[in-house]
Specification:
By secondary structure, the protein is an alpha/beta fold. It has twelve helices and 14 strands. The longest helix is centred in the C-terminal third of the chain and has 19 residues. The protein is globular, with a radius of gyration of 21 Å.
């Protein structure tokens, strides 16, 4: 296991050179090639802030970047704001009209070392639960069909939650397990800066936890659940999954605080950690909702989705401490959305080692909680028993972004 010191040294070093300087860096770090399968490639989309860093460096300024080379690209939808054609021409990357051709780079074999699948953004329909039906399962199916056809498996990263509907998420996980595909998925926010810095050691005696999220229930609710889970999975004895899930709103959601089912002190600490965009009592927020769930070990999860704030936070009480601790998961925009650099760092590590940097089961669990919460909302807040979410995994103490940003000049090559 890479130590935190090693990882931070690698981040500070910023890896190998950008795509334009790959040959110069190859002497010290062996480059790994990747195929990218993306829904859309426009400015500030996930494709831009992930694939753009492979092409143009961590800060997308033409300087240093990961020890990865983009070998091919598939783009599902092309708009008048498309960047893919411009970037492909600039960096001599072929664009293919099928996922199979992208994964094989137009050959009769699989020459790449990994695949990055980004089904986020673009013109895709919504279902009755408010889930945007991004083609993540289709992407993964065609990628893994190609693995089967050419008899080679390489690591795959799926941006955000697999699915997004539960049946698709579980299908993707099961197929990865069956084919022994090194598989990662998830949000950038568990890897971002924390304000203030907060690191919970595995095996901690966490007595209570409350999360706060904002914006759309599906897109941003997933980010908030990932932030919540990346901390509470470090509680003593975790993780064995979730027993039931419920969505509440209006008076019912605040009653859980008034009745003491969820700690008001922990909620207040989480609320104090995020900036407000509306004045007044948070209970007057007409669009607020609550994802409430109970783990199989009896631990209660509570994620308040508020439209009166514009960031994500988690607060917890630890045994023996009088007051809750809380942190905000920062979303910086400069330079070039750096929290995505730390996500890319974990992807790079998987492609170089052939092993996921952290368990995909965490993201499978958060995907299931989210899907069931949105189902409960559609069913007027019914509590849903969730035996399918008895997902066990062993958490990994993978580090998040250090407090300093990426502005420091690199002083050495990637440390591994």
């Amino acid at each position: 296991m890479m130590t935190r010191r090693d990882w931070l040294a690698g981040v500070a070093a910023c890896g190998a050179m950008s795509q334009r300087a790959l040959a110069a860096s190859a002497k010290s770090v062996k480059m790994k090639s990747v195929a990218a399968v993306v829904s859309i490639y426009e400015p500030i989309t996930h494709s831009d802030v992930l694939i753009g860093k492979i092409l143009e460096g961590w800060k997308q300024d033409g300087a240093t970047g990961p020890a990865l080379k983009l070998s091919s690209l598939y783009v599902d939808q092309v708009s008048d704001q498309d960047l893919s054609r411009k970037m492909a021409a600039k960096y001599n990357v072929p664009i293919f009209d099928s996922i199979e051709k992208a994964v094989t780079v137009g050959t009769d074999r699989i020459p790449v070392d990994g695949v990055i699948s980004i089904g986020e953004h673009g013109d895709y329909p919504l279902n009755d639960k408010g889930q945007q039906l991004y083609p993540r399962r289709r992407f993964f199916k065609e990628i893994t069909d190609t693995f089967q056809k050419y008899n080679r498996v390489v690591p795959v990263f799926n941006d955000k939650h697999p699915g997004p509907v539960w049946a698709d998420a579980k299908w993707m996980y099961d197929r990865a397990q069956e084919m022994q595909v090194p598989f990662m998925a998830g949000s950038s926010l568990p890897l971002t800066y924390r304000k203030p810095e907060l690191d919970i050691p595995p095996g901690s005696e966490i007595e209570a936890a409350v999360g706060i999220g904002y914006s759309e229930l599906d897109r941003y609710g997933f980010h908030a659940l990932e932030c919540f889970q990346c901390l509470v999975e470090r509680r003593q004895g975790a993780e064995s999954g979730v027993e039931w899930v419920q969505y509440l709103e209006g008076d019912a959601m605040w009653k859980v605080l008034d009745d003491g089912f969820v700690s008001r002190d922990v909620f207040d600490a989480a609320l104090a950690a995020v900036p407000k965009v509306r004045q007044g009592d948070v209970r007057d927020d007409p669009d607020a909702g609550l994802f409430l769930f109970k783990y199989n070990d009896g631990f209660v999860g509570a994620l308040f989705m508020l439209q009166s704030v514009n960031r994500t936070s988690v607060a917890l009480t630890l045994k023996g401490q009088a007051k809750p601790v809380a942190t905000q998961f920062e979303e910086r925009t400069e330079p070039a959305h750096p929290h995505f650099a730390y996500l890319l760092k974990s992807i790079e590590r998987m492609i170089h080692t052939g092993r996921p940097s952290y368990p995909v089961e965490r993201t499978l669990l958060t995907s299931g909680i989210l899907d069931r919460a949105l189902t409960s909302r559609l069913q007027d807040g019914q509590k849903l028993e969730t035996p399918e979410l008895a997902i066990r995994y062993q958490p990994v103490a993978y580090p998040h972004a250090p407090l300093p940003d990426l502005n420091a000049d690199p002083s050495q090559q990637l440390a591994r």
